[in-house]
Amino acid sequence: MFIVGLTGGLATGKSTVLSIFRENGIAVIDADEIAKKVLEPGTKAWKELRDFFGDEVLLPDGKVNRMQLGEVVFNDVEKRRKLNAITHPRIQSAMMKLAISYFFTGHRYIVMEVPLLFETGKMLTFMHKIITVVCEEHQQLERLCKRNSFSEAVAKKRISCQMPLEDKVAKSHFVIDNSGDLAYTRQQTENIIRLLSRSKFTLYFRAIVFIAFLSVVFGVGHLAYNVIEYKK
Fold first, then answer.
1. Is the pTM of this model over 0.85?
2. Which of 18, 27, 45, 177 would bridge with 110, disulfide CB 3.0–4.6 Å?
């Protein structure tokens, strides 16, 4: 099994592309879904978050008010670092555990959506291929304003805090242009699915794992035999 990283910019359409992979029977890992679970009320991360930020970032039912939390940390570097320290290691750990479970259930590859894949660099080592989702600059701005009810000025500032899309494209193996309609995005995504499905990397990887497993088994067996002979 190998991992395909899916990234892009704010509101470029990563979730749309991820859903197309899912519809085609590909195992996917959504970082946003994982992040929500990590911060569910009562978890260690949630308790640390509440202790540091207070109840102002919580909704009446105790769930994290993600919009409010975003406002709090956006203009404060230290608070943003604290949030990342609380959440990122746990999110990454949960994603890798899920990836391992997919490996043992026989999936040839999985698609892992990581919005800040290049910015943090933490997960790059595990990615066999990387896909970046892009769209026109004006579309990205319009979508973000509509989705998050941001003013244009705030949306531009949020976008500028991430790595420019052209830099992400330069570091990627595939690019999906989500500037057109859903049919166009689906066509590009399914073309990539066909290419990934032909990859022989999974066979090589499984062969290496199998050889390593046999080496361990024979090594343990040899050690046990030597111990038995010694006791004789």
1. no
2. 27
